[in-house]
Amino acid sequence: MSSRSDGLQVENLRVDVAGAGFDVVADVGFSVAPGTALGIVGESGSGKTTVAMALLGFARPGTTIVSGSVCIGGVDILALDESKLRSTRGRLVSYVPQNPSRALSPGMRVGRQIQEMADEHLSRSAAKDDSAALAALTAAQLPPDRETARRYPHQLSGGQQQRVAIAMALVCEPKLIVMDEPTTGLDVLTQKRLLGVIDGLRGRRDTCIVYISHDLGVVRELVDHVAVMYGGRIMEHAPVAELFRSPRHPYTRRLLEAIPRVNRPAGRLRGIAGYPVEPRNRPPGCPFTSRCEYRVERCGHEMPPGFGDGDHVTRCWRVSELPSLDAVSALLGGGTMLEIPSRADSEPLLRVDELVAGYRTRGRLARKRGTKVAVDRVSFALQPGQCLAVVGESGSGKTTLARCIAGLHDPFSGTIEYHGETLPGLSRRRPAAMRRRIQIVFQDPDSSLNPSMTVGAIIRRPLVQFFDLERSEQSRRVGELLERVHLSSSMASRLPRDLSGGEKQRVAIARAIAAEPELLVCDEITSALDVAVQASILELLEELRVSTAMSMLFVTHDLAVVRTIADSVLVMREGAVRELAQRETLFTAPRDEYTKLLLAAAPDLHDGDYPRWGLDESRELVSTGA
Amino acid sequence: MPVRGLRFKASRLGRLNLTPNARIGVVLFLLPVAIAIFGPFFAPYAPDEIIGNAFAAPSQHHLLGLDFVGRDVLSRFLWGGRTAIFIALIGTALGYTLGVVIGLLSAHRRGWVDELFGRLTDLVLAFPALILALLLLAAFGTSIEVVVIAIVVTTAPGATRISRAAALEIVDLPYVEAAKARGERTAFITMREILPNIRRPLLVDYGLRLTAAILLVAGLSFLGLGLKAPAADWGLMIGENRVALTVQPWPVLVPTIAIACLTIGINLVLDGYRRGGVAGVLEDSAETVRVV
User: Fold this and answer.
1) Per-residue pLDDT tens for A488-538?
2) DSSP type of residue A294
3) Architecture of A385-408+430-601 per CATH?
4) Those residues with Cβ within 8 angstroms of residue A16's Cβ, 6 or more apart along the chain or in another chain
């Protein structure tokens, strides 16, 4: 049916760190038939973006493509020289970047930017009118009119910008479209819409799609085949339904176990212990060896070949001996979440009443001055030891609410009571004891830590601030805190730039719990992290909650995460509370229309997918009056 | 303990990646500085000793000839760097410290503090540096103290501007917010959380201000408003002897070259440091590539 020259064939691809003698990715080979889509999935550092770049004939600075071939429609683009490559790129292959706001030129109308692609690559007659551009807009589900084309990027929302980027990728009708995490950073509803757009591209115009993601859950609906990468190798390659129903590689299984599920009562998430392997110290054998629970002697020395039939290939020595999936599922599902007894009768730890907060818009002219309300008359109570999740899209005011509670934002009106005591708006007006009891962890791990302080100095600071301790005692506690967040105490002397995103977030958590808080405010703390890292951070929080009995205010846009961690949920939209309910009530019987919309939009796995947690194993609903 | 602290500070300046240009810069910069510091020990005559005819040509005994009243040019040159460089260093250091403190406070506190110092900065920056210096000298008389004050006044507003702008990019970052939420003092937030992270642009800017100050001191001396007449000073030498440039060029040429070396040298070193910053970033990205 499809001849050898159609679609995409990658063979034996290897990319090295220039001059260092070790590879970033090696042994990578796959093919994608025209009209189908392949998902490449892996943690950050797995080499998936390196492969994506190689598909464009491009190696990131510091790396070189050493060997292999990338044939698109019969043309090996790795064999082309620079100028030939440039002229063929647009028609053979195009790229949809992760961050459209940076990929679009801010000073150019979007229609012009799409047209520019057409002018560059299409024959003159085809490019003369704007029909190609309009067709691309239609395919990206943007209104194909001049109105849209005349907009500047800043006049579009994040989702629309990404659709413009997709239109740009489509306009030359390339044979291959590479998408690098195009929905990362978008909220659920926007993501849902965008995934619909991408799904619509499948099977059209002999185009094949390679979709890169760290989240197996997202690719479930989008692709026909999945390649799971780890340590620069493809570990498992299978048709999508097959992979989700019966994953073979231990790494794939762990990835699936790390995905929080919206449509399932909480099973406990399992992060993957240890850290992704670096190219420098990768063992000669299977790169997953050090983190694999099924490893044997042989794994570390010898890279396994691909086992299995033509369609489902797994690179694991022990593929035939691994325990059955149902056995593992039962083990996982049975444990479920740790129950934290709620004391419904006790007085609430935190009571927020009719809180209104926002920003004053400044302007030289009186008519431009005014206020923008971000949090509109929000009231709720949080019982000691409980975790309340605040859920909403970006712009819903959830972060402003969290900042008010942490004392970083002065509300316009309303009260925040802590143990019955009214809290002043800003932290500097709060007594030190109060500041100690409420700690906050931020979203972006990269900017949460002072880049010129060592990890030890960062964690020591709250100890200096809130406790009267000897210096040696401080150092001892720093080491202890690092170990509590599962980092090595030797990390105290490192600078934040030497740490991975997940490690940085652990340090930020260590800094927060150093103050021994009663309430931990978590502002989207896992949204910048990979699924597997997210699972391990959630696991850590759960553990800390049990051991310290602290309460949590967990701000997130991800409902699936909520189901694994929260006791009750507050849904916000445009500053106002839409629904406040116990977790299971909210997930099984949402009352508010908007909540239903959010629930429907959250990507999820299918019922038959691994791990198969049975409904009968669900925990009893917690019935407490909030 | 003090040794540890010192090492810590040194590592904070980052590594100085010396590009070839920066190497030239170091030499160009160190040459006049060395002359200024060690020159007087090698001077064959006292700088204010009249030993011959005005504008005598170079000879075996007077390698660079004599100046407009018959003093040895070489000796005056060897003596003449100290004061100007010293004044410029003291002035810019004081002015820069003042400016950075105000800038960091403005960025951290905002509100009326920012408003007040912002307008004040605008006011001072509205005058060209030389005019401002002349104004001060006219009002308070010509003395070294007033020259230093003039440098402080002309340096501080620029330092305020750049440190405020650099700090504004940082004050809203989560790690500063975390410090605020902990209730850290203003001094800790500005000095430990903000300042170390804007050191690179500040250091580069400081060098430029130092250059400007050296030129300002030289310019004032040239106009006869800096150091008093019998004193040996490069700027003064240029001014005093410029009438006979065609007859006896050395007393003008040599100090001019020295000042040029100094300023060009500083600029080349800073340029290297700035690029070193870029190289540092590249290094970081190579690091991530390696991790990937």
Assistant:
1) 888 899 899 888 888 899 999 999 999 999 999 999 898 888 888 888 889
2) T
3) 3-Layer(aba) Sandwich (3.40)
4) A22, A23, A24, A63, A64, A66
Residue A428: list chain B partners with CB under 8 A.
180, 183
A447: which chain B residues are within 8 Å (Cβ-Cβ)?
173-175
Amino acid A321: pLDDT: 84
What local confidence, expressed as pLDDT, does residue B286 receive? 33
Domain chopping of chain B, boundaries: 17-39+62-276
Mean pLDDT on A180-189: 81
String of DSSP letters for A263-278: SS------PPSS-PPP
ipTM greater than cut 0.85:
no
Amino acid identity for residue A577 in this structure: V
Distance from CA of A52 to the nearest CA of B (A): 13
pLDDT tens profile A376-424: 999 999 988 889 999 988 888 999 999 999 999 999 999 999 988 899 9
Task: Tell me the C-alpha to C-alpha distance, in Å, between residue A356 and each of A368, A369, A411, A427, B97.
Answer: 21, 18, 6, 17, 41
Q: How far apart are the first and last CA of chain A?
A: 62
- The arithmetic mean of pLDDT across residues A241-265, rounded, is 85
Question: Which residue in the set B173, B180, B282 is minimally distant from A447, CB to CB?
Answer: B173
Q: Which CATH superfamily is domain A8-332 in?
A: P-loop containing nucleotide triphosphate hydrolases (3.40.50.300)
- Tell me the pLDDT band of A364, cut-offs 50, 70 and 90: low
Helix (H, G, I), strand (E, B) or coil at A592: coil
| Cα separation values, A415 from A41, A389, A459, Å | 46, 20, 31
The string of DSSP letters for A173-187 reads --SEEEEESTTTTS-
* B17-39+62-276 to CATH, choices 3.40.50.150, 1.10.3720.10, 3.40.50.800, 1.10.8.60: 1.10.3720.10
When scoring A48, A450, A505 by the number of chain B Cβ atoms within 10 A, the one with the most, hence best to mutate, is A450
Q: Which of A38, A123, A36, A33 is nearest to A87 (CA)?
A: A123
Which pTM does this prediction carry? 0.81
| Spans of chain B, pLDDT less than 70 | 1-18, 275-292
Kindly give the pairing relationship between strand A387-391 and strand A23-32. Answer: unpaired
Domain boundaries, chain A: 8-332, 385-408+430-601
Among A279, A430, A442, beta carbon nearest to B290: A279
- What is the C-alpha to C-alpha distance for residues A560 and A558, in angstroms, rounded to an integer? 5
